[in-house]
């Protein structure tokens, strides 16, 4: 099986997919799509992903877009370790928690949204930071209220919620959000960063200073 990940080192959506691929021990080739250079808008990449976003995973020439769909496919193709429970109720509950980040938090502070705020509404750096802090804070507060006091969201091993949390905490720090109100989440993030799968996927690993 040949896997090619269309990726950007600083993308939190791509970061979560890299973590999942590493946890699965999947062998893949990374191809950078430089979002700052607008490579995602090029005709060649639009043929890969009509949304012109990263990540996109090619599987033997067939393309899967959207990080949740990619991770769900990985669970089927590489069943161990499982990131989304098989039990229907637990599966629904787990996806709901992951969607707090994937659907309701991260999209509001990704690059294209912040560019639009600057271009269309004249938002300066302070306003952009305030916007990001607000929406990240709301998302993390909802997740903290449902976080385990011990272990991972996945129990003794990470699941998809733990995977998507890591890039979101990275973004929270980037926008200087006070993380003191989120002790369970910061504990989980710290535990995740101790894993090789996370260390190898980090932006600073792909693009050393």
TrEMBL record:
GO-annotated molecular function: maleylacetoacetate isomerase activity
Annotated GST C-terminal domain residues: 87-209
EC numbers: 5.2.1.2
Domain GST N-terminal: 1-82
Isomerase recorded as keyword: yes
SUPFAM superfamilies the UniProt entry points to: GST C-terminal domain-like (SSF47616), Thioredoxin-like (SSF52833)
Annotated InterPro entries: Glutathione-S-Trfase_C-like, Glutathione-S-Trfase_C_sf, Glutathione_S-Trfase, Glutathione_S-Trfase_N, GST_Zeta, GST_Zeta_N, Thioredoxin-like_sf
PROSITE patterns xref list: GST_CTER, GST_NTER
Gene3D superfamilies: 1.20.1050.10, Glutaredoxin (3.40.30.10)
UniProt entry keywords in alphabetical sequence: Isomerase
Top EC class, one word: isomerase
Family: Belongs to the GST superfamily. Zeta family.
NCBIfam families linked: maiA
Protein's UniProt name: Maleylacetoacetate isomerase
Natural source organism: Novosphingobium aquae
């Amino acid at each position: 099986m040949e896997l090619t990940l269309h990726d950007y080192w600083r993308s939190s959506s791509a970061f979560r997919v890299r973590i999942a691929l590493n946890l699965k021990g999947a062998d893949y080739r990374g191809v950078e799509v430089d979002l700052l250079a607008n490579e995602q808008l090029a005709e060649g990449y639009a043929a890969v992903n009509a949304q012109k976003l990263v990540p996109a995973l090619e599987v033997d020439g067939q393309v899967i877009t959207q990080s949740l769909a990619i991770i769900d496919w990985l669970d089927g193709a590489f069943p161990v370790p499982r990131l989304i429970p098989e039990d229907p109720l637990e599966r629904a509950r787990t996806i709901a928690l992951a969607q707090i980040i994937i659907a309701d938090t991260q999209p509001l502070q990704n690059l294209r949204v912040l560019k639009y705020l600057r271009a269309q509404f004249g938002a300066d750096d302070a306003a952009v930071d305030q916007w990001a802090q607000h929406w990240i804070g709301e998302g993390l507060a909802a997740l903290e209220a449902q976080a385990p006091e011990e272990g991972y969201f996945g129990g003794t091993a990470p699941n998809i919620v733990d995977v998507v949390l890591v890039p979101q905490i990275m973004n929270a720090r980037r926008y200087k959000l006070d993380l003191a109100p989120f002790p369970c989440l910061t504990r989980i993030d710290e535990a995740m960063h101790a894993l090789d799968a996370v260390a190898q996927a980090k932006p600073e690993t792909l693009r050393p200073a």
